[in-house]
User: Fold this.
Amino acid sequence: MNQTSETVVIIGGAVIGSFVAFFLRKEGFSGSIKVVERDSTYQFSSTALSAASIRTQFGCPFNIGMSLFSAQVFKDIKQWFGEDADIGFEERGYLILGSPEHADSQRNNALMQIGHGAQVDILDPAGARQRFPWLNVEDVGIGTFGTANEGWFDAWALLQCVRREARRLGVEYVQGEATGFTTAGDKVSAVKLAAGQTLACDWCVNAAGAAGGKVAGWLDIQLPVEPRKRTVFHIKAPLAGTGFPMLFDNSGMWIRPEGDGFICGIAPEPARDAEASDDFEPDHYLLEETLWPLLAHRIPAMEQLRVQRAWAGHYEVNLLDHNGVVGAHPTLGNFIFATGFSGHGVMHSPATGRAVAELITHGRYRSLDLSPLGYERIAARRPIVESVVY
Ligand SMILES: Cc1cc2nc3c(=O)[nH]c(=O)nc-3n(C[C@H](O)[C@H](O)[C@H](O)COP(=O)(O)OP(=O)(O)OC[C@H]3O[C@@H](n4cnc5c(N)ncnc54)[C@H](O)[C@@H]3O)c2cc1C
Assistant:
């Protein structure tokens, strides 16, 4: 146990903030941990609105490493959070389809992923069709299928598990909205709340999700993380979900089973992807104009789909490179970033929580080096190229 009287204040108490708090205790941090959350119902949090899927198929080795750790936590959920913990992890793989032009690069990427511990089968179009007979593979050049550590789970249940355990370990959740900071020299000394309260801190973690850029802005820190709306459609179709993976199509659409139907989505074109602010209205036009034709092309049975409902949530998009921003600010050294995951933050929440906790408790990363995700690249406008982004 690292005996300390220090206080960590975490802004944002959804899945990333809660995993930071939880792992601080696991790493032996004995000081005070306060998690400031403005909405204890989490109804607008990305966590509650996400598609809650996990993949190991990434272009950057650190992203693969993060997913492998998270998948292990998901598989061992009862060991981490008790016998009644259940996040319904369905380890059913991602099938990523590539066009003929991208077949070579996707194959090389898969070989790299395998070299970093991922379990991926490389399929030619006929092989993909044999394994998934409902597929139309006429314009497909390659399929890569994760045979382990990929699938989906219940993000809400995960949040409840980690939050409950963090509380049991003495983490305090403070209901309130952070609105600013007090600084002293090169440190953040307190977090101000809307109700007038101030919370003194030795460390402050920005886990505010899509509001991460706004929160950093209170310190005049440029963090290009903005809310961008993503719509999810829950559909039914005359096709069984049995044996169906999470499918990422070369067109950009995705679909996976959910209950007795499927959920699916596609990003809007850039010209219609403005900062979302408080807009949570589903973009219904996407289904008619884009998604349905693509679904029906790839999976002919989807011609007869029926929409059950739709919802929209916010991706916390890092406009520089669609990767998370993790680690201390270079000059304001006790201000720690844990945001900007741009659509893969739930799957990377355990690994992020552990990394930030190591940084605060031990002064360095011990298990997985996340220094490539540091703020330095943002300041230098030096993007990390992650080739597998959706
Ligand atoms: C439609 C959709 C599909 C997605 N699919 C996936 C997927 O399949 N796999 C995956 O890994 N990820 C997915 N994501 C992304 C994922 O949901 C996010 O990366 C992840 O939830 C980020 O977690 P977070 O805790 O940082 O953010 P959030 O869950 O948004 O939590 C941030 C919290 O901070 C609080 N907050 C913000 N500002 C303040 C303030 N000033 N004071 C106090 N509290 C504040 C908010 O109330 C909120 O609860 C998806 C997202 C969407 C929208």
Remarks:
- The mean pLDDT is 97.
- Residues 91-149+229-317 form a domain with the D-Amino Acid Oxidase; Chain A, domain 2 fold (CATH 3.30.9.10).
- Residues 61-75 form the longest helix (15 residues).
